[in-house]
Amino acid sequence: MKMVYHGEDRVYGNIPDVSARSEDRKGAAAEAGIKRYRLAVVILGILCVIQAAVIIFLLLSLLSERREFERTKLDVEAGFKNLTEEREDLKRKLNSLAQGGWEYFSGSFYYISSIEKTWKGSRDDCIQKGADLVIINSKIEEDFIRKSQKIVWIGLTDSETEGTWKWVDGTPLNESYWASEEPNGGETENCGNTFHYEKENSLNDSPCSMSHSGICEVKVRP
């Protein structure tokens, strides 16, 4: 404010200092501008931090997906290699079976031994060949076996529990092809064979100590 007076009477009065107010307004405006600038800088900094975090997250996710892809690729390649090796091994096995007197029928190879042995001896021979005594799963398979016109040991026994007939893989006998009045040997006849091969249903129970040929089976498909 400026002091104003006139003549000898010295009349005083307050006159607003316009220039001071203008300076105050300019200072306030400058301070507000600085605050806005600082706020903008802070917001920009936060946005940069968020952006950097998002980029880092995306990069980590991309790297993780890449690693997962590489693992999957390696697993697929390993699986393919194993399948190829299994296929080649199966080919060699099939060729060996075909050249060794085995006969193919409906997903399995069969071999009838020329030497007659006990049920256990026949089974041991099959196991040494990488097979086992035959498990009959259907009537057509039983008919196929009957065509040999021989009494052969099959993979059926009730040695563990009398009257409970099981196949050599442990599964129970569900569909049976017993000949009429068979099985009838009780505790003395615990092993199955095709004694009645000339009949529609050929299975028979006999003492396991008897000597017969055995029929081995190797499954090449489920």
Can you walk me through this structure?
The chain is an alpha+beta fold. The chain has a domain at 103-219: Mannose-Binding Protein A, Chain A. Helix content is 45%, strand content 17%. It contains 3 helices and 10 strands; from the N terminus they run E-E-H-E-E-H-E-H-E-E-E-E-E. It has helices at residues 18-99, 119-128, 139-146; strands spanning 2-4, 13-15, 103-105, 108-112, 132-133, 152-157, 166-167, 191-193, 204-206, 213-219. The strands form 2 sheets. Strands 3, 4, 5, 6, 7, 8, 9 and 10 form an 8-stranded mixed beta sheet that branches. Strands 1-2 form a two-stranded antiparallel sheet. The longest helix is centred in the first third of the chain and has 82 residues, at 18-99.
Report the span from N to C terminus: 109 Å
The CATH topology of the domain at 103-219 is given as Mannose-Binding Protein A, Chain A
Number of helices: 3
CATH superfamily of the domain at 103-219, called what? Mannose-Binding Protein A, subunit A
Helix share bin: 40-55%
- Strand fraction band? 15-25%
Summarize the structure.
The chain is an alpha+beta fold. The protein has a domain at 103-219: Mannose-Binding Protein A, subunit A (Mannose-Binding Protein A, Chain A, Roll), CATH 3.10.100. It has three helices and ten strands, in the order E-E-H-E-E-H-E-H-E-E-E-E-E.
Which descriptors would you attach to this protein?
222 residues; alpha+beta; Mannose-Binding Protein A, Chain A; 8-stranded mixed beta sheet; two-stranded antiparallel sheet; 10 strands
